[in-house]
Write a structure and sequence with these properties.
By secondary structure, the chain is an alpha+beta fold. The chain has 16 helices and 11 strands. It has helices at residues 48-55, 65-74, 99-111, 117-135, 138-150, 164-169, 172-182, 198-208, 255-266, 272-280, 308-328, 331-348, 352-366, 372-381, 384-395, 413-421, and strands spanning 6-10, 16-21, 27-34, 78-83, 88-95, 188-194, 228-232, 238-247, 284-294, 297-307, 400-404. The strands form 2 sheets. It has a 6-stranded mixed β-sheet with strand order 1-2-6-3-5-4, sandwiched between helices. It has a 5-stranded mixed β-sheet with strand order 7-11-8-10-9, sandwiched between helices. A hairpin with a 4-residue loop joins strand 4 (78-83) and strand 5 (88-95). Helix 12 packs antiparallel against helix 14 (372-381).
Length: 422
């Protein structure tokens, strides 16, 4: 998309409004993105960000929960939200003629939610069901265990959903207090993308977000990676394993090399891990690598699900691939990884929803919207030497291992560390 189509306005309250006009589309995606999430919670209120996100749809001073759903669906729109470790988002996608309704509803739920006691208790039950479902889904909950071992006893390591014990005792006042402390114009962005006019969106935001407070926000606790090992024996057909390392923050010079390294190692069917471990050895059905950047650090990880008999062989082979890539990475596989990442970036620009989210996230992380041409240039600039250097930087750090299932044959951290260092 043409970066000239991006416009930014700062309202008197401190709220930032970012839009991008996209030609040849008939829709608008609009969302409010608040720079607060799991890492901003205290231990006693873990899960409050997610609880609050749920409650935002459960009624305002002007609308019941049913009316919110009916108004959006009456125009064929879609409304949703999510909670992450550093952000909570509320967003809607509508036809262009319904942009005013989109701004009205998002502004209403963000500034005039009532948290009615009956709805509060009902949603508590829904979230407890969600936690139960996550606990019963091993290839989901394993990532919470991995995160907790990487960042133990601190906000960055706590689960986004919270725990059953905490959710059962959280009161309505906890949600109201958290919202008053952490939701403000200064740490929020309203972004919109699609068939729109910037000035019209700004007018709508000024009208419907006027009651979003202007105040200074408390700083989040710094993330302190420690690493470690988690194991839980469960009667499962598979062992679910995540092996990972501390990685880079969004603003780190090695952000794009780390992203390409992850793609090269485990980003698709042509990747090293998939070819060696699934195609050649048949040890897994699913294996992939990932990067999880944050404002002040990040994680690099590999997930695999394997049978109990294959677990003993799997982890050493994974480690061998981490060592090999530091010595024999080659230009053809780097070119494939580069093409995959560029395609992902460019294809996302065709979605108003994706572009809306990108606008907000880039502004909150970098204080500016990064032109697509700049992103592509940074991807193209990654060299083979960068891949090798970043692999050495990441994989020589203390590892984190999480294993769930019949994990008795999964090698422990001392064995993994010795093999990595060999």
């Amino acid at each position: 998309m043409n970066s000239n189509a991006v416009q930014v306005s700062r309202l008197a309250s401190g709220l930032t409004v970012i839009t991008e006009r996209m030609e040849r589309v008939e829709t608008v995606s609009l969302g409010a993105y608040v720079a607060t999430g799991t890492r901003n919670e205290t231990a006693a209120e873990n899960g409050v960000s997610h609880f609050l996100e749920h409650m935002a749809f459960k009624g305002t001073e002007r609308r019941s929960a049913q009316r919110i759903a009916e108004e959006i669906e009456a125009v064929g729109g879609h409304i949703n939200a999510y909670t992450a470790r550093e952000q909570t988002a509320y967003y809607v996608k509508v036809l262009k003629e319904d942009t005013a309704l989109a701004a009205d509803i998002i502004g209403d739920i963000l500034t005039h939610s009532t948290f009615e006691p009956e709805e509060f208790e009902r949603e508590r039950g829904v979230i407890l069901q969600e936690i139960g479902q996550a606990n019963d889904t091993p290839d989901d909950i394993i990532f919470d265990h991995f995160q907790e071992r990487a960042f133990p006893a601190q906000p960055m390591g706590r689960p986004t959903l919270g725990t059953e014990a905490i959710i059962r005792r959280l009161g309505r006042d906890s949600l109201v207090g958290y919202m008053q402390r952490h939701y403000a114009a200064s740490n929020s962005v309203v972004a919109a993308a699609g068939a729109l006019e910037h000035a019209a969106v700004v007018d709508l935001v000024e009208r419907h977000f006027a009651d979003l407070r202007a105040k200074t926000m408390p700083a989040a606790e710094a993330a302190r990676y420690e690493g470690g090992e988690f194991r839980e024996a469960r009667d499962l057909d598979q062992v679910h394993i995540v092996l990972g390392f501390p990685s880079v923050a969004y603003g780190d010079a090695d952000y794009y090399p780390a992203l390409l390294l992850s793609t090269l190692l485990g980003g698709g069917m042509s990747s090293r891990l998939f070819q060696e471990i699934r195609e050649k050895r048949g040890l897994v059905y699913s294996i992939y690598s990932f990067t999880a950047p944050y404002m002040d650090g990040g994680l690099f990880g590999i997930y695999a699900g394997t049978g109990e008999a294959e677990a003993e062989e799997l982890v050493p082979v994974m480690i061998d691939e981490l060592r090999r890539v530091q010595g024999d990475a080659n230009e053809p596989e780097l070119a494939r990884a580069r093409a995959q990442v560029k395609a992902s970036v460019l294809m996302s620009l065709e979605s108003t929803s994706s572009r809306c989210e990108q606008l907000a996230r880039q502004w909150q992380v970098f204080g500016r919207v990064i032109p697509t041409e700049e992103t592509v240039a940074r991807i193209n600039a990654v060299t083979l030497e960068d891949i090798v250097r970043v692999a050495a930087r990441l994989f020589r750090a203390p590892p984190t291992l999480a294993a769930l299932g019949p994990a008795g044959k999964v090698p422990g951290l001392p064995v993994i560390a010795d093999r990595l260092a060999a």
